[in-house]
Design goal:
The protein is α/β, with parallel strands linked by helices and 443 residues long. It has helices at 2-29, 41-44, 54-81, 116-126, 144-151, 178-197, 216-229, 271-277, 286-290, 293-296, 349-361, 368-372, 389-399; strands spanning 106-110, 135-139, 158-161, 202-207, 210-212, 233-237, 256-259, 267-270, 300-304, 309-311, 382-385, 405-406, 409-410, 418-422, 425-430. The strands form four sheets. An eight-stranded mixed sheet has the order 3-2-1-4-8-6-9-7, sandwiched between helices. The longest helix has 28 residues, at 2-29. The relative contact order is 0.09.
Length: 443
């Protein structure tokens, strides 16, 4: 900006001096009036009739020169009046330094599904910048057809191949879980590639059977500063475990929650947390391990009201567990929400907890029959209370939300409360007032 401003001023000054020099030479060297070929001769004959009065000629020349100078002065004033268009407003203040946006790589965990193409196509379709969101596909299994699909994207993605394809020695009763052991090994290797080999400071992990929403990248970019600055958070997830159509508010695409349950299925992790987890990374069932109190350490994740990922992978090591009943009906967000322009400070722990608990425990208590039969009066929200593991599971199952608990934490739960929509009303399935901690025997 300063270089541009200086160049314009020098150019203007040079043109001004040059113009006036030419003008002086012209006025001193012009032929006497009436010479053949002089433009406008007829119009100026009277005003410029030759005379022997040298002093008068000089005075007339001076008047003409002065008029020309006045005109040039007006031009200079106009230039100065438009100077603000290129001059910085804080010329005498400190320089404004625009910070570089952090790079957020997308790590796609792949194995032997050629349908990884659907995942990659959606990522590339919605990716706003190749530089800010490099896509890294880490492939296990050595499946040739899947490798060929990944290679077909050329420089649009980075293709990594997990080198250790050997079977893992497991106890006889765990032979049927060999796939889970290989997945855990692959995750550890791939995350080390991202953080240690490629030296990134954060990553969004996506499995090869996920489709992403239009604002997937916007969502994670907006929440990265909060994840880095709030020590009570340890992940950001794109997934709502109870996000089936009819169980979320379609008019609240911008609504976000804190949750004590690790959701996975499109989630962001920072390097500092990986350095904490990597030395004790489990041999298998890594996602359930993440949900244990020793790893969670009373930290929460951020999750959306409406999911920013959708799973289309019925076939896998889990053999379709939950898929037909829950996962295939998850609603994928279609409305682009400009999260980076929103104030997300309400998600900070102290602010969020006070507001959330006040809303939950000031809501009127209702019965299961009221909810199920659609007899709720008013717009809500409403509170449905449980008091034991069994009562939670019965209510959750009958209302159509996921009823399993991991180390006592319900899916999508925050401080024991699960928020969902039933028959168009907001319901909080909640423990009694005064809740303090999870009971790890509720599993």
């Amino acid at each position: 900006m300063l270089r541009k401003r200086g160049s314009l001023i020098l150019c203007g000054t040079f043109l001004f001096i040059t113009w006036n020099a030419i003008l002086v030479l012209f006025l001193w060297g012009r032929p006497p009036p009436g010479q053949p070929g002089e433009p406008g001769r007829g119009q100026r004959e009277v005003a410029e009739r030759p005379t022997n009065d040298v002093v008068g000629d000089v005075l007339r020349m001076a008047d003409t020169f002065e008029a020309e100078l006045e005109m040039q002065k007006e031009i200079l004033l106009q230039i100065q009046n438009h100077q603000s268009l290129w001059e910085p407003s804080n010329r005498d203040g400190p320089k404004v330094v625009v910070p570089r946006q952090p790079v957020i790589p997308i790590l796609v965990i792949a194995c032997n599904r050629v349908t990884v193409r659907r995942c990659l196509d959606k990522l590339l379709q919605h990716r706003p910048s190749a530089e800010l969101y490099p896509i890294i596909v880490s492939q296990d299994c050595g499946h040739a057809e899947t490798a060929e699909v990944i290679r077909s994207y050329g420089s649009q993605v980075t293709h990594l191949k997990q080198p250790d394809l050997s079977d893992i020695a497991v106890q006889p009763q765990h032979k049927k879980f060999q796939g889970y052991y290989k997945i855990s090994r692959h995750y550890r290797w791939a995350l080390n590639q991202v953080f240690k080999t490629l030296s990134h400071s954060s990553v969004v992990i996506v499995e090869d059977d996920l489709e992403v929403a239009p604002d997937f990248f916007e969502y994670f970019r907006a929440l990265l500063p909060l994840l880095k600055s709030d020590p009570s958070l340890w992940c950001v997830s794109a997934w709502n475990d109870n996000g089936r159509d009819g169980y979320v508010d379609p008019g609240k695409a911008n609504l976000l929650y804190r949750t004590d349950f690790f959701p996975g299925l499109g989630w962001m992790l920072v390097k500092e947390v990986w350095e904490e987890l990597e030395p004790k990374w489990p041999a298998s069932f890594w996602d359930d391990w993440m949900r244990q109190p020793e790893q969670r350490r009373n930290r929460a994740c951020i999750r959306p009201e409406i999911s920013r990922t959708l799973t289309f992978g019925r076939q896998g090591v889990s053999l379709g567990q939950f898929y037909d009943k829950y996962l295939r009906y998850i609603k994928l967000n279609t409305e682009f929400v400009p999260f980076t322009k929103l104030d997300l400070s309400y998600l900070k722990e102290e602010t969020y907890r006070k507001v959330f608990e006040k809303e939950v425990y000031s809501a009127p208590v209702v019965t299961y029959e009221d909810v199920k039969q659609g007899q709720l009066k008013g717009s809500g929200p409403f509170r449905l209370q449980y008091s034991s593991k069994d009562s939670f599971k019965v209510l959750a199952k009958n209302l159509g939300i996921m009823d399993d608990l991991k180390s006592g934490v319900p899916r999508a739960g925050y401080r024991g409360v699960v928020s969902f929509i039933s028959r168009g009303k907001r319901i909080y399935l909640a423990p009694p007032p005064g809740w303090t901690q999870y009971d790890t025997t509720w599993s």
